[in-house]
TrEMBL record:
Ranges in coiled-coil conformation: none
Protein name: non-specific serine/threonine protein kinase
Transmembrane region(s): 320-341
Residue stretches making up the Protein kinase domain: 20-290
The organism of origin for this protein: Undibacterium jejuense
Group of enzyme by EC: transferase
Length: 342
């Protein structure tokens, strides 16, 4: 990863954490600062996320546990669309995670600068993320904070899911003296408000279906250029998420196919029984959409080529007719001349 929440100016560095040398400060996230680093053992660049300094000892312990959770949650997963974790440790009072260095930008930055994705690009990107989350869910890991800022887009448009900082995993470390779901918003919900599921907004227990909803919300924004719900007041925003239904993407933009719009709408159903029952099911729906599009394009290509083939066929027939006509004329001429001579 290379572009976290903000981009402070790079400063000269002569620091080392673990075996890694820090070479450039890249940005500051919600709970850590990210640096570009170098692994001298394998001789490759890496991204180093260092836990921000926390004066309160109790908070420091809880945040360090969250860091360990992020490393454990992502580190046990292997998928082309999930960031690779190389190392995680706490040494000399510094807690850090070393992960693969990714060229490109996060989706939040791209959307903020006016980048638009066509419907096929969007479907492909979201399907790849759905496949990545399917692997995570199969390993008992729920991300719980799928949002544009946690989706990194490489220069070839390939997505990478990053920041499993609030993921729920079987081996998660939890402070027994503190509620597991305490976080930034109202002390009882986890996730980023604009993309969180209704069950998160209401502070309920979540399942893997929360990632289905959030991925649908991201897809909604990629297709329409706007978030499903918007409010500067967090309480109002949470109320909208829990109780209101957004306009369908095709209502906002008539150029969005109804079949694709329905995928988004189903992913964002408030009733869990009406939502896709897994990211795998959502991925399959996107695959069918992309296959239909591919076949239609192939059919369109064949239809376009057919008149050309017919035209060539006609030209060939016309040539044969001309040759045949010429042969007949020559034959008649020969007969006439023969009679005349005799």
């Amino acid at each position: 990863m290379t572009n976290p929440a903000s981009q402070p100016s790079a400063s000269p560095l002569n620091k080392r954490v673990g075996r890694f040398y820090l070479t450039e400060k890249l940005g500051v996230g919600s709970n850590g600062t990210v640096f570009r680093g170098h692994d001298p053992v394998i001789d490759r660049d890496v991204a180093i996320k260092i836990l921000n300094t926390i004066p309160n000892a109790a908070d420091k312990k809880q945040r360090e546990q969250q860091f360990i959770n992020e490393a454990r949650a992502a580190g046990r997963l292997s998928h082309p669309s999930i960031v690779t974790i190389f190392d995680a440790s706490s040494e000399g009072g510094t807690t850090f995670i070393a992960m693969e260095f990714l060229p490109g930008q996060d989706l939040r930055q791209m959307l903020a600068t006016g980048k638009s994705f066509d419907i096929i690009e969007t479907a492909i990107i979201i399907q790849k993320i759905a496949d990545a989350l399917t692997v995570a869910h199969a390993n008992g890991v729920i991300h719980r904070d799928i949002k544009p800022g946690n989706i990194f887009i490489l220069p070839n448009n390939h997505p990478k899911v990053v920041d499993f900082g609030i993921a729920r995993a079987p081996n998660r470390l939890i402070d027994e003296n503190r509620p597991a779901d305490v976080t930034l918003f109202n002390n009882n919900v986890l996730g980023t408000p604009n993309y969180m599921s209704p069950e998160q907004a209401m502070g309920k227990q979540v399942t893997a279906l929360t990632d289905v909803y959030s991925l649908g919300a991201v897809m909604y924004e990629m297709l329409t250029g706007q978030k499903p719900f918007q409010s500067n007041d967090i309480d109002k925003l949470l109320h909208q998420i829990a109780n209101k239904s957004p306009k369908s993407p095709s209502e906002i933009n008539s150029g969005i196919p109804e079949s694709l719009s329905k995928i988004v709408t189903k992913a964002m159903q408030k009733d869990l029984t009406l939502r896709y029952q897994s990211t795998e099911e959502m991925s399959q729906a996107l695959y069918r959409f992309l296959e239909r599009d591919r076949k239609l394009k192939q059919k369109g290509g064949r239809t376009k080529a057919a008149p050309e083939r017919n035209e060539k066929k006609k030209e060939g027939i016309n040539s044969l007719l001309l040759l045949s006509g010429a042969a007949v004329i020559v034959a008649i001429g020969a007969i006439v001349i023969s009679k005349f001579v005799h």
